[in-house]
Amino acid sequence: MICMMSVRDELRESLRVQSAMVTTPEVPTSVYRDMFGNMCRRMVAQPGTFSLRNDCTIELSGLPDPVMPWLRPTPLADLPDEVLMYLVGSRYCETDRLSQIAWDMFGHIAPGYAQVQAICDYVHNHIYFNYMNARVTRTAYEAWQEGTGVCRDFAHLAITLCRCMNIPTRYVNGYIPDIGVPITGPMDFCAWMQVYLDGSWHTFDPRNNVPRIGRVEVAYGRDAADVPLIHSFGPHILQKFTVWADEVV
């Protein structure tokens, strides 16, 4: 098994309490970084019931996601080499199937922050969030057709539409506490996106579509295929899954 549950290295200086990952029964684990710099933990799970647990306390600014309407696109010729992969199609993001649709809907909007926000607004209103309609094989095009899904479907569709407009966009997953918003249900692992504007990456969240406080990045990649919470090379049945991301006062 390979799992991604630890925060990205960029946040490690902000950790105040870090507990090691605990497996039950205890098995040897090793850590490596994948091609995106995500921390991956590798182990062999024995047959039978097997559990994973990880916890930490992290100090963040306490401020919501910044809103910066002045951001402009970085000219394509000036994009860093490592950013170019986030312009093209990937496993769940079929830019070829949505390109004309994207240009028809968003081509008239000034490139930059306004165009990305318009895409997020559209996706937020187009997809109906429903856990019961989750499907691990759903692509961005299928999410657009079906109009239903979970946070990863919101992210995949918005990512694809942004890439169609020549805006580099990557898939991000991690934790979002319910700070400053009504608590509507149990917490879950969350997916959102980052776009490359004015020479750096910026957070957008088509699922929630409002600035959130306490966002913690765990992993990013081209789409969900690059950053599974658990990647098992064999059959398994998930019996219990609990996420907590609570404010420490």
TrEMBL record:
Source taxon at top rank: Bacteria
Cross-referenced SUPFAM superfamilies: Cysteine proteinases (SSF54001)
SMART domains recorded: TGc (SM00460)
Location of the Transglutaminase-like domain: 143-208
Pfam families according to UniProt: Transglut_core
Protein name: Transglutaminase
Lineage summary: Bacteria, Pseudomonadati, Pseudomonadota, Alphaproteobacteria, Rhodobacterales
